C-alpha cells in the first residue's frame, strides 16, 4: 500500500540528507551549487542524492530499499551522456564546458572564478573554484563553446533545458552581460531551448531586460537566506549586498520576466528559525518569486565541511518543505512553470515531490 504524502516526504527528506548506496554514472564533486551527488530519476523526476556508502538506503533492482523494506520509490540512475565523449572545435572536452544535471538539464558555470572566493569573503557552502583547481573545467566559457555543446546535448541526449550560472565578477554588472552574449549564442544554435540565467543583483537593473531580450526564459537571483545575521556568518562577501538590492532586483525581474519566472535559493540548515524561513518564503511568493528551499549539505572542499558543519535534520527539511509547498500551491505556483532552471528541474530539493 502506498504511504501517505507526509510519510512519503519524511522518507524522501531522510534520503536527501543521508544519501543512498548506488552506482551513479553521472555525478558531481565540487562546483557551484549542491554537489557530491549522484544524479538519479526517482519516480520519474530528477533527483540529486548524496552518494554515501554508510547510508541505510540502497538501490536494488530499480527500487530504494531500507534493509529488506521496499520503500515504493522507483529509481533509475541517469546514464552517462553521449556528448561527454566529444570536444569543441578548439579542443576542449565538452564536459569541461557544461554538465548534464538530472536526465535532461544542461548546466554550466560560465565564469568559474568569483571575486568573493577568498577565505574571509567566501560563501561557506560553495566550492566554485575547486573544480577549476582540479582541472575538470575551464575558467571562462565562450559563447561559441556553449552553443556547440548545447546543440550536441540536445541532439544526442535529449536535453530539454539549460542553466547558466556565473561566479561574481568585479564589474558593475557582476557578470550578467557575459551571460547575455552566451544566451544569444546558444539560442542561435538551438532555437527555443528554455534557458535560466543565475546572477547576483546587478548594479544596473537594466541588464535584466537585456537578458530577457537575449532570450532567457527565467532568472535566479539567489540570496540563500533572508536573515542578515545568517548572511554575515555564512556569506560574508555576498552579505555586503544589502537585502534591499535583492528586493529591488527581484521586483524588476518579475516585471521583466513575469510572475513565477524568477526564483531564489533558500537554504535549510543555516541556523535561521524555520518559522522565519517559511515567513520569508511567503513574502517572496507574494512578490511572484519562487523560493527554492533545499537542505544545506556541506560538500567536500567547503569551509562548512572543514569546520564540522552538518546537514540539517531530515525532520526540519520535511517540515519547511511541506509548509513552503503549501504556500506555493495556494498561490498557484509550481517549479515546472518556470520552464528552465533549478526550480524547474527540482532535483536538489523536495518541493516538487511536495506539490510545489
Automatic annotation (TrEMBL):
Residues 100-337 form the Radical SAM core domain. Pfam families: Radical_SAM. Coiled coil: none annotated. InterPro entries: Aldolase_TIM, Elp3/MiaA/NifB-like_rSAM, F420, rSAM, rSAM_MSMEG0568, rSAM_sf. SMART domains: Elp3. It comes from the Bacteria. The keyword Magnesium does not apply. Its cofactor is [4Fe-4S] cluster. Keywords: 4Fe-4S, Iron, Iron-sulfur, Metal-binding, S-adenosyl-L-methionine. NCBIfam families: rSAM_MSMEG_0568 (TIGR04043), variant_rSAM (NF045502). This is MSMEG_0568 family radical SAM protein. It comes from Amycolatopsis nalaikhensis. The lineage of its organism: Bacteria, Bacillati, Actinomycetota, Actinomycetes, Pseudonocardiales.
Amino acid at each position: 500500500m502506498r504511504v501517505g504524502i507526509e510519510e512519503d516526504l519524511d522518507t524522501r527528506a531522510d534520503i536527501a540528507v543521508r544519501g543512498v548506496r548506488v552506482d551513479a554514472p553521472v555525478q558531481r564533486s565540487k562546483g557551484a551549487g549542491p554537489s557530491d551527488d549522484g544524479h538519479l530519476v526517482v519516480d520519474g523526476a530528477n533527483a540529486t542524492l548524496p552518494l554515501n556508502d554508510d547510508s541505510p538506503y540502497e538501490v536494488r533492482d530499480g527500487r530504494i530499499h531500507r534493509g529488506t523494506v521496499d520503500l515504493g520509490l522507483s529509481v533509475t540512475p541517469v546514464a552517462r551522456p553521449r556528448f561527454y565523449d566529444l570536444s569543441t572545435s578548439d579542443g576542449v572536452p565538452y564536459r569541461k564546458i557544461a554538465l548534464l544535471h538530472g536526465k535532461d538539464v544542461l548546466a554550466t558555470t560560465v565564469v568559474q572564478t568569483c571575486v568573493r572566493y577568498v577565505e574571509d569573503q567566501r560563501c561557506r557552502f560553495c566550492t566554485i573554484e575547486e573544480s577549476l583547481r582540479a582541472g575538470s573545467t575551464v575558467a571562462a566559457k565562450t559563447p561559441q563553446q556553449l552553443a556547440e555543446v548545447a546543440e550536441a546535448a540536445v541532439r544526442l541526449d535529449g536535453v530539454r533545458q539549460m542553466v547558466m550560472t556565473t561566479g561574481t565578477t568585479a564589474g558593475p554588472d557582476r557578470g550578467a552581460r557575459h551571460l547575455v552574449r552566451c544566451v544569444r549564442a546558444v539560442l542561435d544554435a538551438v532555437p527555443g531551448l528554455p534557458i535560466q540565467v543565475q546572477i547576483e543583483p546587478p548594479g544596473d537593473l537594466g541588464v535584466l531586460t537585456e537578458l530577457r531580450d537575449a532570450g532567457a526564459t527565467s532568472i535566479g537571483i539567489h540570496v540563500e537566506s533572508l536573515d542578515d545575521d545568517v548572511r554575515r556568518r555564512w556569506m560574508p562577501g555576498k552579505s555586503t549586498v544589502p537585502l534591499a538590492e535583492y528586493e529591488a532586483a527581484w521586483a524588476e525581474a518579475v516585471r521583466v520576466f513575469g510572475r513565477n519566472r524568477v526564483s531564489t535559493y533558500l537554504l535549510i540548515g543555516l541556523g535561521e528559525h524555520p518559522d522565519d524561513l517559511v515567513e520569508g518564503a511567503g513574502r517572496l511568493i507574494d512578490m511572484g518569486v519562487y523560493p527554492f528551499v533545499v537542505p544545506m549539505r556541506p560538500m567536500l572542499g567547503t569551509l562548512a565541511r572543514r569546520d564540522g558543519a552538518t546537514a540539517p535534520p531530515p525532520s526540519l527539511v520535511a517540515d519547511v518543505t511541506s509548509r513552503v509547498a503549501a504556500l506555493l500551491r495556494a498561490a498557484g505556483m509550481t517549479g515546472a512553470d518556470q520552464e528552465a532552471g533549478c526550480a524547474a528541474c527540482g532535483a536538489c530539493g523536495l518541493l516538487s515531490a511536495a506539490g510545489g
